[in-house]
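Instructor's aside before we start: the two examples that follow are unrelated to each other. I chose them only because their records fit on one page, so don't look for a connection. First example below.
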Amino acid sequence: MKKGLILEGGAMRGLFSAGVMDVMMENGIVFDGAIGVSAGAAFGCNYKSGQIGRVIRYNTKYSKDKRYCSLRSLFKTGDLYGADFCYRQLPEELDIFDVESYRKSPMEFYAVATDIETGKPVYHKCDIGNGEDLEWFRASASLPLVARIVEIDGLKLLDGGISDSVPLKYFESIGYDRNIVILTQPYGYRKGKNRSIPFLKIKYRKYPKLIEGMKRRHEMYNSTLEYIEKREKEGSIFVIRPEEKLPIKRIESDPVCLRQVHDLGRKVAAENLKKITDFLA
């Protein structure tokens, strides 16, 4: 049996997932591997390094810092979330990411990004926790229109949620057969069509496969949710999700709001702790 953790993105809705993960880490719940998309990658890597509370700590401390997330950063650098601040200064100087513990942990960690030339997902196993791995976390979380394209190993990459928002099928395909899935939307949610397609067509006109993927993203996402709900009813996976729509915007700088969503994640995890441990056992 291989125990897996699958982490959806959702920008600052990811604070819900961070709250769930903190409770699971506090209670010694271990996984053989985890896979994260977008915020799921940027926040989920802390499970492998074992850093309880790090995600909510740096988000509440720096959420109003213009170097972290701001229109000024977008206009100045091309990234709404400042790449140098988020993926160098923060992990290396301000709130240290424990690279040594990350490397020593036997848990596998994968980040998902989208190859904009093919429109297909790229699943990358991140073993080291610094340098190129941080670039993969950045690529996974690089939202179209508000982030620069990230180039790694000849690939041009953007947000993993474009092509595989909840990579349960991929994890099952590589042998993970006892999976916990953390979603950031309540049961029954379905995504609508992307209203920013006209702007995407202009900015990414050189990448027609990306445009096609963005046009179909809601269909892919909704189909994935249907698969998850089917697997959940079969008892094959255990799903953790908010009980109702989270009281937070995708881009949020209010520390009180961030803390509230993190606490909601903690609450849901605590209420389901025995079910989680029984399922994994």
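Example two begins here.
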Amino acid sequence: MKSFDFAQAPGHLIRRAHQVSVALFAAGAGTVPEWEITQVQFAILNALMDSPGMDQVTLAQKVALDAATSGSVLARLESRGWLCRIPDQFDRRRRLLWITDEGQAVVARLFDAIAESQRRLMAPLTEAEQAELKRLLGKLAQPREDSPGG
């Protein structure tokens, strides 16, 4: 029996590309070492810059996180003073999220480094290949009936 060509398996290649992405992000975010921040944390802060006052469920959907993961990440960001959670005055079970001035400063300070990390990630590709990769990854990332949570 011949072995599976795992090195060319799409899932494996996506995982390897993700490892490269994480490493480049960490190198960019590392330009401000006192602010250790993950891609997910940056995505959350960035989303709150665009939509302050969003509830936790909507935010989790916007950055593609499950509720349990988003809750723990939000707690870490809140403990760092980068966001605050305020009970909704109409529904006390809902928490509305606001990025703090300090959180905005983190995003502003890291913005160029993070943008550069994304440029470096895509650098081996032509502009047309970059557009096609983004299109295809977007298609793969869409919720599906045949996937968990889809």
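Residues 101-122 form the longest helix (22 residues).
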